[in-house]
Specification:
By secondary structure, the protein is mostly helical. It is built from four helices and no strands. The longest helix has 16 residues, at 132-147.
């Protein structure tokens, strides 16, 4: 038989277990003395908002790359058949994963025409007569496009 058990099956802590302070001695509200200020080692200091001053020519500058801005999105337009195809995809879209994946694939494949693709989706979300399940599927599409805008596909980032 275990020496810590009793006949009424109540839990008794082992003799070598130390209990914390009584609850009545623990303050209900923290005080500044409970959390001493940080030392002056810059821990807790927010970073500067000014860009770093790189006056020395380091080898890291040779590894820089150009990130195109949103304003540098391609001005290409969808062909008439591509536009009609995408509009048809949006008319028939449901919350079915395959439908969302197909529409997202079209958008990413036509990322160089992202401005027009976004306009088509935006217009399709503004039609009052569109059933809510269809609008929901189109919002799922927007979410997927935004998620996949980090893909290593040329111009995919222009969807951000």
């Amino acid at each position: 038989a275990d020496s810590t058990s009793t006949s009424d099956n109540s839990m008794v802590p082992p003799a070598n277990m130390t209990m914390g302070p009584p609850l009545s001695t623990i303050p209900l509200h923290p005080t500044t003395s409970m959390f001493p200020p940080l030392s002056s080692n810059n821990m807790g200091t927010p970073p500067s908002t000014s860009p770093p001053n790189n006056t020395s020519s380091s080898s890291s500058s040779s590894h820089s790359f150009h990130v195109p801005s949103r304003n540098q999105a391609s001005t290409k337009s969808l062909t008439r058949s591509d536009r009609e195809e995408f509009e048809e995809i949006l008319k028939e879209i449901t919350t079915n994963r395959a439908h969302i994946r197909n529409a997202m694939g079209f958008a990413i494949d036509h990322a160089d025409e992202s401005k027009e693709v976004v306009e088509i989706i935006s217009q399709s979300l503004c039609v009052k007569e569109t059933p809510l399940p269809t609008k929901l599927a189109r919002l799922f599409l927007v979410s997927d496009i935004l998620h996949n805008s980090a893909a290593a596909v040329p111009h995919a980032s222009t969807y951000r």
